[in-house]
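Supplementary notes for students who missed Thursday's class. We covered one full example, reproduced here. Read the sequence, then the structure, then the short commentary at the end.
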Amino acid sequence: MGIRGLETFIRHTFDQFEKIKLHNCNVVIDGDSIFHQMYKECELTCVFGGEYDEFYQLCKQLFESFKNCQINAFVVFDGAQLDHRKESTMIKRAKDSITQSTTNDSIVSMHPALLRQTFINLLDTMQVPYISALGEGDDECVSLANHLNCYLMATDSDYFCYNLYRGYIPFESLDIQPREKHGRVYLTAQLYRINSLLEKFKGLQPKTLALAYQPRQTQNLWNAMEWMRKMNDVDEALDFLLEKVHLNSTYELRTKIEEAILCYLEPSDTLIYRFHSTHNSNPNLLKNPVFVQLAQTYLNTLDMNDNQIEDSINEVSQNIKSKCDHSLPLFLGNAVTNCHLSSSFIEIFIRRQLICRALIEVKEKPSIFTYAIPIVLPCFSILFKYEQEQNDLSIIFYHRKIDQLEKDEYVISTHADDIPELEQIWTTMSVYERQNCIKKYLKIPDEFVQRLENIPSEFHLWLMIIHYCSIGTLTETVRLK
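Structure (token representation):
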């Protein structure tokens, strides 16, 4: 989410940015922040639903410039929201999207639904390696950048709070037009290192700086840093601060502050283990041997055997629990990190709800997600089939109705004999069998499926869904509310 105004505060108050020339180097990229910023820079007319080709071409220009300058890029995507901390923020953003979605103003900025997938398609074409975190990606971006000795590039002011060994490059400072001097082709950018800020406030340490950032309001940052530089450590500062807090118990508050500080000082680093050769089931990681070698060099420094590395990978999935306290299936976690499945499946697995942002739509017509519900409900029936402790499961969809965000609750049946097991689909079910499942749930007529025989099979799923949506056959589902 970032700290509003922090970059402006650092840039204008201290001018702590170093001008650099990027050439023959390695960069970890925060994928979500970059592709959203690039779409914004395109200034496309989004009322037609995407303008994906123009967006694709701009992204292609960026990575072609990287290639010309011998810059190796590795992209990390955000995963799911694993707790409830940002639920209210997500609901507010969904409400704000409805306001934009239904406006009559011709100038409106909304990010289309397939923006991330378009960006991933470009990465596949350009052979750029990428991976998704299971949870938020900031910590993993920092850890990978430090372990692989890379710059980190993003558009998130939270990265000013981390101790990045090579430094942080705000994407807005990058000029994607290559320059050449003395036969050397390079890109210009600006680099920030946390040490340059610490030098301005003698006495500040990374720990105390992380606490100073907790107000998350720029008007308080100067005073906070001036005060924190006088403290010997975080414990002394917290003792002083919590003396002024009139609560029955300050233990919970102190714990939350310490956890927030620890995220900056010791960011999680689970993705690096997925480079391990005995586990590597993610072909995306193998696209650039430079990062494979860097990762293996780092892993060789660890006092861990193959089983311990495997346990570290699996532990993340095992700690993600459903309402019935089941762990996230390992193969499902792998599918999300490989970007084969949306992280929305994890959020539904945890909370059994999906918050849908509106797109450019006609206010008087149903939300586009209304048409998707009969498509995704069978998916969730499969996802929750092993939750045998409950006879009836339900899932909540937040989506637009006219000009309001409302929620609908749907029953999910998991006891039908014809619902396949999730692992069966993922490991043994043929493409033909999967196609029959889709055909049955969407009630696609046999004659339409027969017409697909002369079309490549990779298009069949999309054509069946397009057929389903085009005829508007919504299967009415039993509602609780």
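Commentary. Confidence is low (pLDDT under 50) at residues 473-481. The two ends are 33 Å apart (CA to CA). If anything here is unclear, bring it to office hours.
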